[in-house]
Recover the amino acids of this structure.
């Protein structure tokens, strides 16, 4: 569809900065022009118009760490330490999840994400052939990277799932779906298997991907204080300099690795992240909820490490709201460092847009509003008491906006939500399906 979005304030996150009374022109899936409204009206008189007068247009937000299917566990287990939470609650529940449950959970997260202005989600979960997260994202129209999470105890299964996922989905759905290889964590993936997964990733890239559209890695690293000890205990390895340094010694780190958390880092770990150009996905709400600690984000940013933002799962957050994540990010590091100048609003907005795109190696197509990029946009209504008066759009975006202020969302040039109505699926029906899936899951869980 050819579209001209006119009259809004365009927060480009690109070289044009903020354009007041601005306009964005979209042809098919691509932004072809960005400028002042009056010029654009003259240049493109016949394009279908969206009146964004008095509204704010931003690049769609990028959630760099999510487990989309886990929305079915939202509120199922709160207020436990990570290990107990995983071993006594999450994993037993998940053992009963079918492909269909995964698909329905991801449908729900996709809808929730879009309703909060998120247009790209990097999700790590189990890929099954019959139903999966990729199908759900494609159905709703959400852009995403769909991973398959790998564990030492199921190597054959992983190999088949990764091959199938890459063959069927990488670069598909008009280029909106990409895939990733997801070693779960250093304590669940043995050193030999880590290296093997690297080789598998190279092989999959050769067969199904290209340098501008790569199959990346998505993993959990340095989430909890005892991770090094757990890894040593699991695999009989020993190391002195921290978990990142250990991963580096295996030769598996690189610029295509998205490492979620990076909370407990040694000085050497931070140097290694920088040297290997590893991308960090910071999940402040999940880290706080599971009491994992606080990632040294200001130090990482000072060392020029790319830090993106994520919600983590709807069971450890418990929402997919990236506006909340941005606000927590801006506040948390000020508070723990007793320094109100850290993580200013502009920087945090970059982390959820252009730096998120860089982390996913997708920044030549998404993350900012610039001619030549894919049209992933969110339009917000600021004419509300909690967003009034207005001194700075960026300040409101970080400190005052709610997900419900997002009115319209465009992904890959398609209007997916207009005036808060999702166009691609019936939201009521998605919720009903999620409720039924939850009931059946609980039945299976309790009839063990
Ligand atoms: Zn996670």
């Amino acid at each position: 569809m050819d579209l001209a979005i006119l009259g809004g304030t365009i927060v480009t996150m690109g070289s044009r900065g903020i354009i007041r009374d601005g306009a964005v022109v979209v042809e098919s899936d691509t932004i072809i022009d960005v400028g002042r409204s009056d010029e654009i009206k003259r240049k493109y008189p016949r394009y279908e118009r969206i009146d964004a007068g008095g509204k704010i247009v931003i690049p769609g937000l990028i959630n760099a760490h999510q487990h989309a299917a886990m929305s079915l566990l939202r509120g199922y287990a709160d207020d436990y330490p990570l290990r107990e939470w995983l071993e006594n609650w999450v994993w037993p529940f998940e053992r009963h999840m079918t492909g269909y449950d995964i698909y329905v959970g991801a449908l729900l997260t996709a809808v929730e994400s879009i309703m909060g202005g998120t247009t790209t989600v990097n999700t790590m979960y189990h890929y099954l052939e019959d139903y999966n997260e990729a199908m759900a994202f494609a159905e709703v129209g959400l852009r995403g990277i769909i991973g398959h999470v790998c564990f030492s105890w199921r190597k054959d299964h992983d190999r088949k799932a990764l091959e199938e996922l890459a063959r069927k989905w990488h670069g598909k759905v008009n280029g909106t779906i990409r895939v990733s290889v997801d070693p779960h964590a250093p304590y669940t993936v043995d050193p030999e298997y880590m290296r093997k997964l690297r080789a598998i990733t190279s092989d999959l890239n050769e067969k199904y991907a290209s340098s501008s559209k790569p199959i990346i890695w998505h993993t959990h690293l340095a989430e909890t204080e005892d991770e090094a000890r757990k890894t040593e205990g699991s695999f009989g390895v020993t190391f002195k300099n921290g978990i990142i340094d250990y991963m580096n010694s295996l030769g598996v780190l690189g610029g295509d690795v998205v490492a979620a958390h990076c909370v407990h880092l040694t000085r050497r770990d931070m140097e290694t992240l920088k040297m290997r150009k590893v991308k960090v996905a910071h999940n402040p709400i999940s880290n706080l909820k599971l009491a994992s600690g606080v990632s040294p984000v200001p130090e990482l940013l000072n060392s020029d490490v790319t830090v993106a933002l994520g919600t983590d799962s709807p069971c450890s957050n418990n929402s997919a709201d990236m506006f909340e994540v941005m606000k927590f990010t801006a506040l948390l590091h000020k508070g723990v460092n007793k320094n109100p100048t850290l993580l200013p609003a502009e920087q945090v907005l970059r982390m959820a847009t252009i730096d998120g795109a860089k982390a996913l190696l997708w920044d030549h197509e998404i993350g900012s509003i610039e001619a030549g990029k894919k049209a992933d946009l969110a339009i917000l209504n600021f004419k509300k008491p909690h967003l009034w008066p207005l001194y700075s759009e960026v300040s409101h975006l970080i400190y005052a906006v709610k997900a419900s202020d997002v009115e319209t969302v465009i992904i890959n040039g398609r209007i997916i939500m207009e005036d808060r109505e999702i166009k691609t699926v019936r939201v009521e029906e998605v919720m009903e399906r999620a409720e039924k899936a939850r009931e059946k899951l609980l039945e299976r869980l309790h009839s063990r």
Remarks:
- Residues 65, 67, 220, 260, 312-313 surround zinc ion (CB under 6 Å).
- The chain has a mean pLDDT of 97.
- The domain at 3-59+373-422 is CATH 2.30.40.10 (Urease, subunit C; domain 1).
- Residues 377 and 410 are 5 Å apart (CA to CA).
